[in-house]
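Letters spell out the chain; backbone shape is given numerically. Take this protein:
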Amino acid sequence: MRLNQLRRLLSRLLPLNKPGQASEKDTGMNYLVAGLGNIGAEYASTRHNLGFMVLDAWAQASNTVFRTERYGDVAEISFKGRKFYLLKPSTYMNLSGNAVRYWMDKLKLPLENLIVICDDLNLPFGTVRMRKNGSDGGHNGLKDIQARLNTTQWARIRVGIGNNYTRGAQVDFVIGELTAEEKAAVPGICERVIEGIKNFATIGPDRAMNLLNVKPAKPVKEEKEV
């Protein structure tokens, strides 16, 4: 065998990355972040689309654009040796599990590398809660993901939208447009969630939860001089 042929053979067999440097194929360093919502301009500013809003904010801050793929729009962001695959399912909320299952299989990721972002009626608006696992809490998107993955052992971040609606008006409230005051608060909420996801991947779920699961400080009102 000639020397050049031997070199080519060795280059195929030996890893190209330096010792201690993670390969992009190292699934332990890759994460799927699924932000739940409904596709279509009519849903873009609704409470049910807070998952989409977080991913849009992250992509914009990272100068990254989404590309349309099977079952959703996908973007990739690298941070401290980790790669985050941002997924906005195109299946509509109630079939989110199809998209999550497909991309988990495609990327060959373990369940502990999945993070789902969704809205939550049971939390006051702007309250954020990260959990390593749990029930669907009546959320149809989480319910479908649970059914498709056949487990509840995956992380989720719930963003509170409150429950300021009259009896029988829950659906209209959830798919209703955010108020002007709520829209003004969305960028800050997105920043907190994004920071929580980065911490999840770098310092671990437990420490990330301790940092994220705190009530944001309320602005102090200045007293008027008498």
Observations:
- The domain at 26-212 is CATH 3.40.50.1470 (Rossmann fold).
- The helical segments are 3-13, 50-61, 96-107, 140-149, 170-174, 180-202, 205-212.
- The mean pLDDT is 88.
- The chain has one domain: 26-212.
